[in-house]
Amino acid sequence: MAAKAKILPKLKPIIGRKDENRPDIAAGLKKNVLPKKPELQPLKTIPTNKLEFNRLITGDFTQDFSKQTSRLFRIFLSSTFSDFKVERNEIYRRVFPSIRQRCAQLGYEFQVVDMRWGVSDTADTDHTADIMCMDEIERCIELSAGLNFIYLIGNRYGYMYVPLGIDQEEFEQFIAVAREEKIANVDLIEKWFQLDKNSVPSK
Asked: What is the pTM of this model?
């Protein structure tokens, strides 16, 4: 006996709560029409390197700035962690979604670098956390089409990492002054830091 073909019921689009806040999507779903993709806005002339950035903030417009081709806003969010936990969470909840949506409308991508989730315990014990942060800041400056750094500052001092490396000349001057001032445990500092002759300059 041949199998009978069944006619499947026509599926109706379900408009959820999120779509109710987007009239363009809600209307499009009712008509089975997706909203049009936003047109890319023309790129603006924005400084693309440190030299041009310094010229910009010092008001030097004697030369034209190079053309920025990036369509990415990559922002490094910096603050002390414990006393800005609420503020950082609120920024993620209330501010960044609107910025990300606006960037998408203009054809840009929006990214946030937050080292609250990027620094491991190993990086802390190896004294490489500050290097990781500086590398990410450099990457944000290099890749971002504009704004690349947000700093929240309060009354609390952040943690100062012991440097992973110190130039030999600077280290010797530090030890000499420490001994002259009779600072305790100078021998421990000399024990913790070893001269790396393969580094140029030596550290």
From this structure: 0.57
Bond preceding residue 23 cis, omega within 30 of 0? no
**What is the per-residue pLDDT across 22-63, written as a single tens digit (0 to 9) for each?**
554 455 545 555 445 555 555 444 445 667 777 777 877 777
Up-side HSE of residue 123: CA atoms within 13 Å toward CB? 12
Quote the tokens at residue 132.
């990781």
Residue 138 in tokens: 């450099």
Tokens coding 169: 């000349």
Integer Cα distance of 69 and 145 in angstroms: 8
> How far is it, in rounded angstroms, from Cα 189 to Cα 171?
10
**How far is 167 from 172, CA to CA, in rounded Å?**
9
Task: Confirm if 32 and 13 have CB atoms less than 8 A apart.
Answer: yes
Q: Dump pLDDT digits (tens) for 115-169.
A: 887 666 655 667 778 888 889 999 998 899 888 999 999 888 877 777 878 888 8
Q: Could you state, in order of their start, the residue ranges of all structural domains in the chain?
A: 50-151, 165-203
List, in sequence order, the alpha helices (H) in the chain.
17-20, 23-30, 50-57, 85-90, 96-105, 121-125, 129-143, 168-180, 186-192
